[in-house]
Design goal:
Blueprint (H helix, E strand, L loop, with lengths): L14 E5 L3 H12 L3 E5 L13 E3 L6 H9 L3 E4 L6 H8 L8 H7 L2 H10 L7 E4 L2 H11 L3 E5 L9 E4 L5 H8 L4 E5 L5 E9 L5 E3 L3 E6 L2 E7 L5 H18 L3 E9 L6 E7 L9 H4 L4 H9 L12 E8 L6 H6 L4 E4 L10 E9 L4
Parallel strand pairs: 1-2, 1-4, 2-3
Antiparallel strand pairs: 5-8, 6-7, 6-8, 9-10, 9-11, 9-13, 11-12, 12-15, 13-14, 15-17, 16-17
Helix pairs in contact: 1-10, 2-3, 3-4
């Protein structure tokens, strides 16, 4: 991928435009304020969490070209808090203002086929996969890969959405119908011992710093608990970090990117499940556990500032508060070891991320 070598360095007082108004945008805006920057949130959603902590808000559709141009002219740099921003919108913005990460990164990460092709092309292992457009093609892919498999829509999947496990040929028809898409990949089901993620940051100058790998435990396809460092040996931690460094370097990435891995007991030990071109739920522990949080690191990177230290202060455990979990707020506030975060969402729904709690334990094991 091509990129400019010129570094755009912003000073405090500059305005950072953030596409998306969820909790990640909220925490990015808070980190930006800590460094003296102003923020301008662009989000069509009513009462979004980020608008509570930003200087300015544009409540417009992501496909509104005139609104995007006005937004671009009102800010000094643009970033985004989720990866399903239309690439065309980013192309419009970058005609008027620098945008990090780049539109080309979105093209890779928004399509599971493009993402896996990219990873395999740079020598990084993934699950075996075949792109299909019909159920008959999917049936042929089952024969090639072998059961069980996971059917995944190529676009717009998260927290277990847009995918279905097929353990028997007889299950294929229902699984295919449930995806409601003709752009699908059939992916081999990988037995794994653990899921981990590495948050990697790359600055405009090419400097790369990674956070310690985190072990991720899911419940109902949603992240429940992250533990840093992951409970794997030091050599494997280094190998995971090296893979993440390789990915951000090949992408000529600017900002923080999450790399999610399956960890197996047999070779290849690591297979990359997916990459997310943004700050990530599995790195929230960095707010209390490191000198520089993932959110501050992202702001530093996109503003052309030196990247910060990512050393762990101690073993960190971050628990997501999903739905009604948030009503235990008083319990966490009374706990001297709990660092409680509320995302400002007023309606608790099943599966909705409402906040998180981080605890820092005194030793790294």
């Amino acid at each position: 991928m091509s990129s400019s070598s010129e570094i755009m360095k912003l000073s405090p007082g500059a305005v950072i435009g953030i596409l998306g108004g969820g909790q990640l945008g909220r925490m990015l805006a808070m980190a930006a304020a800590q460094l003296g920057f102003h923020t301008h949130i662009y989000c069509p959603d009513e009462r979004n969490p980020a608008e509570q902590v930003t200087d300015r808000l544009s409540r417009n559709d992501y496909n509104d070209e005139a609104a995007l141009v006005r937004f671009a002219k009102a800010v000094d740099v643009v970033t985004y808090e989720f990866e399903n921003i239309p690439v065309e919108s980013v192309e419009i913005l970058r005609q008027h203002v620098p945008v990090f990460p780049s539109a080309q990164v979105l093209r890779v990460s928004q399509d599971r086929l493009h993402e896996k092709d990219f990873l395999n092309d740079i020598g990084i292992a993934t699950a075996p996969y075949v792109a299909v457009a019909t159920m008959d093609e999917a049936a042929e892919a089952l024969k090639k890969i072998g059961l069980p498999v996971v059917l995944k829509t190529r676009r717009f999947g998260y927290d277990g959405k847009g995918q279905a496990i097929v353990k028997d040929v007889a299950d294929l028809a229902d699984a295919w119908a449930g995806l409601k898409s003709n752009d699908v990949i059939v992916e081999g089901f990988i037995p794994f011992d653990m899921e981990i993620s590495v948050l990697a940051a790359r600055g405009q100058d090419g400097d790369i710093k990674c956070f310690d790998p985190a072990e991720n435990i899911h419940k109902n396809h949603i992240l429940d608990l992250s533990i840093a460092p992951a409970r794997i040996n030091a050599d494997l931690r280094r190998e995971a970090v090296d893979i993440a460094r390789h990915i951000v370097a090949e992408l000529e990435y600017v900002g923080v990117l999450a790399v999610e891995f399956f960890v197996s007991s047999t070779a290849p030990i690591f297979r990359v499940n997916e990459i997310a071109p943004r700050v990530h739920n599995s790195g929230h522990w960095s707010i209390e556990a490191c000198p520089t949080s993932q959110f501050e690191q992202h702001i530093r990177a996109i503003c052309g500032l030196p990247l910060g230290d990512t050393t762990l202060y101690g073993r960190a455990e971050m628990k997501n508060l999903i739905g009604d979990d948030i009503f235990d707020m008083d319990i966490y506030l009374k706990d001297p070891d709990a660092n409680f975060h509320h995302y400002g969402k007023m309606q608790a729904r099943p599966g909705r991320k409402m906040g998180h709690v981080t605890r820092i334990l005194p030793t790294v094991k």
